[in-house]
Structures are given as C-alpha cells and as structure tokens.
Amino acid sequence: MRLGIRIFLVYFFFVGLTGYFLLYTVREEIRPGVRQSTEETLVDTANLLAEILAPDVKAGTLDQSRLNDALTAYGRREPKAEIWGLAKNQVSHRIYVTDARGIVLLDSAGQAVGQDYSRWNDVYLTLRGQYGARSTRSDPADPESSVMHVGAPIMDGAQIIGEVTVAKPNRSLQPYIDRSERRLLAFGLGLIIMGLLVGAGLSWWLTRSLRKLTHYAQAVSEGERVALPAYGGGELAQLATAVAHMRSQLEGKDYVERYVHTLTHELKSPLAAIRGAAELLQGPMPAAQQQRFVGNIDRESARLQQLIERLLNLAMVEQRQGLQEQADIAVAALFDSVVQSQAARVQNSALDISNAVPRGVVLLGEPFLLRQAFSNLLDNALDFTPPGGRLRLSMDGQQLVLFNQAEAIPDYALARLSERFYSLPRPATGRKSTGLGLNFVEEVLHLHGGHLRVGNVDGGVEVRLWFPWTRIST
C-alpha cells in the first residue's frame, strides 16, 4: 500500500472517529439541554401564575373569577408563529390549581377538577415547601408521550394555601430538537468532509514531495543529470540537501576512480612512444632518423597535452548540474570566430567554408561552453574533410546543421561516435584522436537542454544540434 494512502487512511480514521464521538456527544446533549431550558421557563411561568392566583385562592373565589374562561380561551389560541423556520399553531401548556390538600380547583384542560392530585410529586413536594416537578407519560407504552410538570406554591404570607402547576408535553419540543440535530449533523458532516479533504491534500502534497525526491534519487542512480527538487524549507528541504550531498560525495569518489583508470590507460601509448624515441636518441644515428624520432616525441607530447586538456574540460562539464551563467549568443558570429581561430589549417587545406545561419539567430547559453563545443565540432570536421572539400553551417528550424564533405561513417561506428575515448582513424594520418571531442559536445548540449545527432548524408556527414532556446533577434 502506498505511503500516501496509508497516511490518508490513518488521518481518515482519526478525523472520522473524533467527529463521530463529538457529534454523538453533542447530539446526546441537545435533548436534555432543550428540556432544561424549557423547565426553567416553566418555573418562571408557574411562579408568575402563583402570584396572580393568590388573591382568589385566599378568598375562595377562584371558581367565580374569569380565569376559567381565560384558560379555556388560552387553550384555543392559534399563535401562528414561526420559530426558526418551524410553525407553531397551537399552545401546549396545561395549567391546573390545587388547594392546600391537593384537590384540583381549576384545570385549563377541564378534566381533573375535584380530583386528588396530592400524590403527584409536583403537588406533593410544592405543598411541603420544596421544588415540585415531575415527568410523567400520558401513555405508559409511549416513551415520547412524557409531559413535564412544574409546580409553584400559592402563598398567604408565610403559609402555603395551594399550588399551581404548569405542564408542557415533551412532544411539542421534538421538532426543535430534530431540527437542531439535523443542522448539527449537516454541520458536523461538513466539517468531517472538509477535514478529510484537507487530509487528502496534505497526503497528496507529502506523497508528491517524496515522489519528487524518489525520482531524483532514481535518476541519479541511473546516471542522469537532473536538478535537485525545490522545497520551501523544513525537513523535506533538509532531506533533499542531504541526498544531494550524498550524491556529490559518491559521484566524486566514483568519478575520480573511473578517470584515474581511464587516464592511466590512455597515457600508456604516447608515453611508451616518447620513452622509446628518447632511448633511441641516446645512441648515435643519422640526422634524418634523429629528426624523425624528435618529431615523434613532439607529436606524442602534443597528444598528451590535448588528452589532458580535454579530460579536464570533460570532467568539468560532467560534474556540473546546470549552467553557471546564461547570455544571448549570436550563432553566426560565434562560428565565424571559431573558424578564424583555425584560419591557418583551413587555408592550408584550401577548404570551402560557408556560414548560412542568419545573423539574427541567437542561443541562450553559457558562452565559454558553447565556444568549446563549436571548436570541438570544427576540429572533428576538419580532421575528416579532404583538401579542397566543403564545410557548411546552416539552420533547419530550431536545429543547427554542420555539414562537411567526407567519406561516410561506417554503420557500426554511428552509435558510438559520442562515446568517451571512441575514435575513428583520421584519413590523412591514420591516427585516432582522444575520442573526447564529441562526448564533450554532447555533455554541453545536455547541460543546455538540447541533444546531438550525427549521420551520413549525400556527399558527406551531417551533425545536427538541437537547442530549446534558439530564437531570431530583431
């Protein structure tokens, strides 16, 4: 199972469980909370009625007062109220009054007058100076039929002469409880969903960040040149920096070992030639033969110097992860400058070199590296172009095309031309080069985001250079 999915599942379990317990707890508190609030209102109402009824109960004129008619009219009222979106079209209070013995004197429902209510807690406790309240089911088989009763004493000075009870069925509160629960459920589910979306986003971000680092490590292990993933900071940035440092250390060690082996192997041949010529020169020999051995020493020394310089340049490029500077470089002017540096060689071979790249074409790149790359390409082309041959630089879309008149490259060698230390014999001398020129060019193009392709065409060889940042300057 992927790390991101595991993180999300843990987060989902935690948020879901927390949300469930929170919703369950709050939901369980709604019903008693509403009933407690209602009971508090009933207490106030009962005590207000006790003060209003006290004179008639004391005088024994309760049955003669207009309270009977008032309570009957109260029971028939239709408030037509809308409370938080819920309609209320009838009153739900029941009010009854008892004397000091608990006998009902007045009942707004008109059903208990003359009955003995002295055993009901609301009456029994109130007549004894205590807080009297009870909750009784009107239908013993229906738990939703319970009715709250709250009593208040009717006083004559310090003497209790009766009590008044205000009752309210819990069923009348249910719509408000249901509405609160629905709203709470919707709000809670919304919060849980939002939390899960945040968790999914966090899981995606973390997985994506780790995946970028993983791809970086995989690319490094395969020898690809890739940029270090950018992070805003924190532990991921520290981890990425540590991975890059480890890569640098490991690559540096491997790079040194590889180049030490390569350099010692490539130096064997010219050193052996120089040593052999030097030993022969220590003895007597004709001047012509002596001059030939001196020439061998000079050529092999030049070969050693070229090999070392190109190895150093190649090592510099291969260790780079990006360009150190970028500037607009006019391609035509750069090529003319490189050709000018080889003017003597071009003139001696009577070569026909043309530059068909428009003067407005520019490359965005590092000037030093591009000049070195063009110099290597020109050196390679001059080595294989016969005296009096043609060499031409042109533009094809976003590609620079360098053509030189030469014999076709053998098929077996085409795929290995940019391989390090691979070289073909030069037609003029039969000797091979260092085999580092095209490899250096390819590395420079990769640093610039481009690529190199070499192939045979009619009459010669064509090198195509593709750069992503080629444009026409106005």
From TrEMBL:
CDD domains recorded: HAMP, HisKA
Parts of the chain that traverse the membrane: 6-26, 184-206
EC identifiers of the protein: 2.7.13.3
Subcellular location: Membrane
Catalysed reactions listed for this entry: ATP + protein L-histidine = ADP + protein N-phospho-L-histidine
HAMP domain location: 204-255
Residue ranges the record marks as coiled coil: none
Gene Ontology molecular function, alphabetical: phosphorelay sensor kinase activity
Domain Histidine kinase positions: 262-471
Key words, A-Z: Kinase, Membrane, Phosphoprotein, Transferase, Transmembrane, Transmembrane helix, Two-component regulatory system
Taxonomic superkingdom: Bacteria
InterPro entries on file: HAMP_dom, HATPase_C_sf, HATPase_dom, His_kinase_dom, HisK_dim/P_dom, HisK_dim/P_sf, Sensor-like_sf, TCS_sensor_his_kinase
GO (cellular component) term, any one: membrane
Listed Gene3D superfamilies: 1.10.287.130, 6.10.340.10, Histidine kinase-like ATPase, C-terminal domain
PANTHER family the UniProt entry points to: HISTIDINE KINASE, SENSOR HISTIDINE KINASE YKOH
Protein name according to UniProt: histidine kinase
Gene (UniProt): creC
